[in-house]
Amino acid sequence: MLGKIGYGTVSEALAYKLPFVFVRRDYFNEEPFLRNMLEFYQSGVEMIRRDLLTGHWKPYLERAISLKPCYEGGINGGEVAAHILQETAIGKNYASDKLSGARRLRDAIILGYQLQRAPGRDVSIPEWYMNAESELGLSAGSPSSQMSESNSIADLCTEDFEILHGDLQGLSDTMTFLNCLVELNNVSNSEKNNEKRQMRERKAAAGLFNWEEDIFVTRAPGRLDVMGGIADYSGSLVLQMPIREACHVAVQRNHPSKHRLWKHALARQNAKGQGPMPVLQIVSYGSELSNRGPTFDMDLSDFIEGDQPISYEKAKKYFAQDPSQKWAAYVAGTILVLMKELGVHFEDSISMLVSSAVPEGKGVSSSASVEVASMSAIAAAHGLSISPRDLALLCQKVENHIVGAPCGVMDQMTSACGEANKLLAMVCQPAEIVGLVAIPNHIRFWGIDSGIRHSVGGADYGSVRIGAFMGRKMIKAIASTKLSQSLSTANGASPDELDNDGLELLEAEASLDYLCNLSPHRYEALYGKLLPDSMLGETFLEKYTDHGDTVTVIDKKRTYGVTAAAKHPVYENFRVKAFKALLTSASSDEQLTALGELLYQCHYSYSACGLGSDGTDRLVQLVQEMQHGKVSKGEDGTLYGAKITGGGSGGTVCVIGRNSLRSSHQILEIQQRYKSATGYLPFIFEGSSPGAGKFGYLRIRRRISRKS
């Protein structure tokens, strides 16, 4: 049977023990659980949509014919559903087995909760749901492992793999990732592994590498936006901290004649009749948690048109063909950017394994960490020497032009150039690092996840960015008019009567490159009252032609907020400068109070732009209640401020406080209070780790002989 996955088709395939070749359905919440059932009962083969449309069916049909469907359960849907509901109601089979009726029901409900979230709308996840780490078959790779466990993992890694270049730097998440490679190697070599059900991503990854050849491993962390946030695209100073959670990527290049291809990729290449050609194959861990395809492959020739790389616009459409594989744009897009921007020619096939512990949708730059780790690994495997700063700028092109998210560059810069326990200070004009600010010993930062999914590709973030660029265009026009009037009035006046300083300021503002180069007092004195609160896109285009932003497009029918969007970066740049200066001042309660106040001001400025959310507002309120409570007043304060981070509209809140045990206890209390109010237990980000540039890369090779 050939068709799209659904309750009807899966039921028929299972009931009649009929092999089912299926394609995914976009935005179908229950698909992962139906797909798991088909695989468990050896009844299904997934076909990539691209191969369906181009007629490359043969390898899938051959695989389907070889299946031996083994479903023996009930085929009366009503009885089966009633049995599942009854088991769930009485708590029976409350195990983590994801094929149990109770687990399937819970998972389907939770995925529905997650997909139904919208900016500004809080949806609470039920308390009984546990997001088990066993979903991936291993720990997510957080560096919080105990030292003894880390040492044993390191011993295992070095026993199986020889590290030819680089240093683990004591990072337990990197050790865990290498241990994962060891396990894949063992799976690949084992002929006795007759386990009926393996996670598809594990199975695909086990055959991904040639274990006799070198593998290159890179690591890039997410980031906590301490100050700066959305003002980055307006040229602000930003302060960013690389977090402990990171993405790891393993890359291997092979001559096309030696590359182990997946069956459908081999069939596609044979159909072209051109012999072995360079192919990219990617496996991404964590697909079950976000309803996306675990694998992606393409002929690298798809990136070439004539003898030149394809345009970014064509690449964007290429990856958008199948929503379940759109994630591959973040990884494969790095190859196209290297082709276009640096003229790199890729003649070998490439295998990539991506494993990220940076949670998606929480506003901590999960996408930037994937891009930076991917491009770093590709560069290392091909002997390319790219500075961390340049690599970050190249990765921004991936996100802006291939993925289509209008983000600034601070995320990629922090992931590439950051250092552990320091704030990366950068002026985004476009990306000038002005230093690394050590976090004082008495100060600590936390991130608390609101549970509301954040996306820089969302409409709210993009519309606020457009509003800011509209405001800049209007300010330049107002300054030009004032300059012309001043020059006209000055005709015939003596040099002593001319206000040359004022004219120079107007000249600079008439050609304003970045909103953040306008001081708050100039904004208030000359421009603030002249900007409209909002403006229809069509009206703006008729008067000003364009807004001067290459990564966003104005919708003529949409009304954009202007004043709040333009005012925010002007004041935020000032707040960040003040924050940076305060960090290096003498330790005192007044210092911490002032730092916290700056965070609060930033938070409410986000809300004025329309980028707040009920969840993040609730977390900030909980911090304030803790700060102003009787216990905190009676002793030295512990928590001092909080703000929404990144692109806003959900995501994570940054909290500042004293580096003390009581502060940590208060953070945990806020976590529990938030859970009591919403039903969602927030993820807490704490700790820091080195950026991709500081980590460098590992070059590893499996040891041929091992000690007994």
Keywords:
alpha+beta; globular; nine-stranded mixed β-sheet; 25 helices
Our estimate of the beta-strand percent is 15-25%
Mean pLDDT: 85
Class derived from helix and strand content: alpha+beta
Uncertain residue ranges: 117-150, 191-198
State the assembly state of the protein chains.
Answer: single chain
State the separation between the terminal residues, measured CA to CA: 50 Å
Radius of gyration using CA atoms only: 27 Å
Please tally the helical runs, counting DSSP H or I stretches of 4 or more residues.
25
The residue fraction in helices comes out at: 40-55%
Shape assignment: globular
Count of DSSP strands: 20
Let me know the largest β-sheet. Answer: 9 strands, mixed
Architecture overview:
The chain has 708 residues and is an alpha+beta fold. Helices cover 45% and strands 16% of the residues. The protein is built from 25 helices and 20 strands. Strand 17 and strand 18 form a beta hairpin. Helix 8 crosses helix 9, helix 11 packs antiparallel against helix 12 and helix 16 packs antiparallel against helix 17. The chain starts with a strand and ends in a 6-residue tail after the last strand. About 6% of the residues have low confidence.
